[in-house]
Amino acid sequence: MSRRSHRDAAPTHNETASDGRAGTDVAVTRLLWLAGLWLGSRLVAGLLVAPFVDPGAPLSAGSLVVSQIPFWGVTVGGLWWMARREGERLSGFVRWGFAPQDLGVGLVAGFGLHWGVNLLYRVLENAGVSGDPSASARELVNASPGVLGKVVLVVMVAVGAPVVEEMYYRGVAQRTAMQLAEGTSAKSGLRHRWGAVAGLVAVAAFFALSHIATGADLIQLPGLTLVGVVLGGLVWRSGRLGPSIVAHGVFNLCSLLVLWGVSSPLLAG
């Protein structure tokens, strides 16, 4: 009977633990860079747009473009640099990818989120929780009249925002948080699964908090957290951003259509 070579031998417990610790170290470093990118992108974008946007004026489609394009540019540029630093292409680093079924899955999930979030706020309202989760979005829509304003909002809110946000939150931040929460546990173990869930929920909450600009926006936290959990689940299950980008875009588009007064059974949630 021939003996297996050292190269073909299964890794020992110590070797597996060592690999796990090395992966955790990489994840910790990546998390620190993500935190710096989150803060830095907002700081740089704020400095760049300060001469062009009046802080006291209502947010309009024009000011949205001026404020978001630099922010998105810095965010994507930072992710590209992080990918290069870890020896990966940007597409692989953010788990970019689309499959034919992603369109259908994303459409169902997006409309499902629209209905689910509406139902959540009806329950909260019946429980005595007050507030208008659509207030800031309504101000943006009201300040962006005309066909051009609507086109800009669709491109920015239903296309640009889902792409960039999914790259950052689900493509990199969620993967990093899940890796840290899982630790060095075996991939088939219970701790691994619960660690993945904890990382997913943590990033969903972070995603929700990142959208809060004023105290009045706090009412958005439950709905946005639910959105983050569902989008995170889509990426966790598929291993790529395709379904979450489509679902995110459909959900945002539904919100715009409702605020524009469009009537449809699909929007009646």
From TrEMBL:
Q: Which residues cross the membrane?
A: 31-53, 59-82, 103-124, 144-164, 194-213, 219-237, 249-268
Annotated stretches, region: Disordered? 1-20
* Residue span(s) of domain CAAX prenyl protease 2/Lysostaphin resistance protein A-like: 150-253
Q: Which UniProt keywords apply?
A: Membrane, Transmembrane, Transmembrane helix
Q: Which residues form a coiled coil?
A: none
Please list the GO biological process terms of this entry.
Answer: CAAX-box protein maturation
GO MF annotation list:
endopeptidase activity
Q: What is the superkingdom listed in this entry's lineage?
A: Bacteria
Please state what the protein is called: CAAX prenyl protease 2/Lysostaphin resistance protein A-like domain-containing protein
| Source taxonomy | Bacteria, Bacillati, Actinomycetota, Acidimicrobiia, Acidimicrobiales
